């Protein structure tokens, strides 16, 4: 028996199920949440995330957001999330190269923050897909 995990994105509810454990990266580092975890509110980093559901590991690319842990529920409100099976490694590599090029160009017409976030997303995707 675990706890209820709810994942919410700007598009709506992505996931609402019982899980045994959840590992996410907060601004302070990785944290594994189990049933009975102390209440916590924190900032989620761009990083791989995994959970165990019915004894099976599932991996996701998590792209920032917030976490709220209560007595019997964990809520993630995130900018975006992708299951490992949804990630196209070639597309992620192309996105990484595009973002790196934009950052290096130092063109005043390029939104540097947007390029840096695109690079972070691509790196998380590539890290996750390299675990095969």
Provide an overview of this structure.
With 132 residues, this protein is an alpha+beta fold. The chain folds into 2 domains: 3-84, F0F1 ATP synthase delta/epsilon subunit, N-terminal (ATP Synthase, domain 1, Sandwich); 88-129, Up-down Bundle (Single alpha-helices involved in coiled-coils or other helix-helix interfaces), CATH 1.20.5. It is built from 2 helices and 8 strands; from the N terminus they run ββββββββαα. It has helices spanning 89-105, 112-129, and strands at residues 3-9, 12-19, 21-26, 29-34, 40-53, 56-69, 73-78, 81-83. Strands 1, 2, 3, 4, 5, 6, 7 and 8 form an 8-stranded mixed beta sheet that branches. Helix 1 (89-105) packs antiparallel against helix 2 (112-129). The longest helix has 18 residues, at 112-129. It is elongated and about 50 Å long.
Indicate the topology.
Elements: E1 3-9, E2 12-19, E3 21-26, E4 29-34, E5 40-53, E6 56-69, E7 73-78, E8 81-83, H1 89-105, H2 112-129
Parallel strand pairs: 1-7
Antiparallel strand pairs: 1-2, 3-4, 3-5, 5-6, 6-7, 6-8
Quick recap of the structure?
This protein has 132 residues and is an alpha+beta fold. It has 2 domains: 3-84, ATP Synthase, domain 1 (Sandwich); 88-129, ATP synthase delta/epsilon subunit, C-terminal domain (Single alpha-helices involved in coiled-coils or other helix-helix interfaces, Up-down Bundle).
**pLDDT under 50 segments (min length 5)?**
none
Roughly what is the average pLDDT, rounded to an integer?
93
Percent helix = 25-40%
Which class of the largest domain in CATH terms? Mainly Beta
What is the chain-wise order of helices and strands?
Answer: EEEEEEEEHH
Shape: elongated
Number of helices: 2
At CATH level 3, the topology of the largest domain is ATP Synthase, domain 1
Task: Let me know the largest β-sheet.
Answer: 8 strands, mixed
Distance between the termini: 29 Å
């Amino acid at each position: 028996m675990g706890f209820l995990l709810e994942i919410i994105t700007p598009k709506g509810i992505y996931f609402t199920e019982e899980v045994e454990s959840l590992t996410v990266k907060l601004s302070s580092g990785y944290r594994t949440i189990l049933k009975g975890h102390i209440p916590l509110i924190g900032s989620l980093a761009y990083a791989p995330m995994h959970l165990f559901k019915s004894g099976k590991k599932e991996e996701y690319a998590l792209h920032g957001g917030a976490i709220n842990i209560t007595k019997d529920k964990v809520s993630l409100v995130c900018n975006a999330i992708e299951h490992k099976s949804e990630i196209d490694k070639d597309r992620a590599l192309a996105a990484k190269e595009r973002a790196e090029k934009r950052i290096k160009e130092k063109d005043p017409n390029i939104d540097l923050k947007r390029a840096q976030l695109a690079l972070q997303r691509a790196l998380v995707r590539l890290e996750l897909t390299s675990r095969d």
